[in-house]
Specification:
With 266 residues, this protein is of the alpha+beta class. A hairpin with a 4-residue loop joins strand 7 and strand 8. Helix 1 packs antiparallel against helix 2 and helix 5 packs parallel to helix 6.
């Protein structure tokens, strides 16, 4: 069955805005918080409710599609053949809990492992970064221009400072060297937003030592439409099933940082 991608994008966008409205309503009351893999890996009932919202919508409208979400609402093994939705209901849960801002809904739609639709919605700023494969990338409907390259020493990089102080991080020393050589670093606490910021030229690059597919699936699609590159630290394609390192940036900067700083196996 052929997919009307334009119509699917419209439907997905409406769902994202509806989900954002639901999240805003929850901020007025208390939020139940739990830890997952460690005390800093947080989840709330809002994360689960928003993921369930998307899962139910997709099951009703597109029952033949597959679903992969961070909170495991669907217990079926997702297939990357056919059409699969990859969703992070709240990317930046710690920010959602502590700041009530700097978090995003991330929705990606892949078809036979090819990214077709990417949506990253900054709920509190009402900024929707969106892309349709081959049609360009946009911010609230305004097309994003191709990104501008900057030399390394003028670049601002998104990087969590924890990665350069943790003794067990094998990339600690290369990342420390990189931090010394760039203009500055920033950390927003949401991988989806930081990838969107690279695409919109608010950052020149973004690195993380450990991310999952739902963190970057939508960002990859948006970055591709403005000529940026997303890979692991060795420059290999990102997996849609396994976690790992991530480096997203403008193409020349991407090549330079991998070759000089992070591309070796540690």
């Amino acid at each position: 069955m052929s997919v009307d991608w334009l119509e699917l994008e419209k439907v997905a966008t409406n769902w994202v805005y509806e989900a954002g409205h639901k999240i805003k309503k929850t901020l007025a009351g208390p939020i139940d918080i739990e830890s997952k893999s460690n005390p800093d890996d947080l989840v709330t009932e809002v994360d689960r409710a928003i993921e369930a919202f998307f899962y139910e919508k997709i099951q009703e409208a597109f029952p033949e599609h597959y679903f992969l979400g961070e909170e495991g609402i669907s217990d079926e093994e997702p297939s990357l053949d056919g059409t699969v939705w990859i969703i992070d209901p709240i990317d930046g849960t710690m920010n959602f809990i502590h700041q009530k801002q700097n978090f995003a809904i991330s929705v990606a739609v892949y078809h036979n492992k090819v990214g077709m639709i990417g949506l990253i919605y900054d709920v509190m700023r009402d900024e929707l970064f969106h892309a349709h494969r081959g049609k360009g990338a946009f911010l609230n409907g305004a097309e994003l221009p191709p990104v501008k390259e900057r030399p390394l020493h003028e670049s601002v990089i998104g990087l969590n400072a924890r990665w350069i102080v943790e003794q067990t991080n094998p990339y600690r020393n290369p990342l420390k060297a990189l931090v010394r050589d760039v203009r500055s670093i920033r950390s927003y606490g949401s991988a989806a937003l930081e990838m969107a910021y690279v695409a919109s030229d608010r950052l020149d690059g973004y690195l993380s030592v450990q991310l999952s597919p739902w963190d970057y699936a939508a960002g990859m699609i948006i970055l591709n439409e403005v000529g940026c590159v997303a890979s692991n630290f060795q420059g290999d394609p990102l997996s849609l099933t396994d976690s790992g390192t991530l480096f997203a940036s403008k193409p020349h900067l991407h090549k330079e940082i991998i070759s000089i700083y992070i591309g070796e196996e540690y």
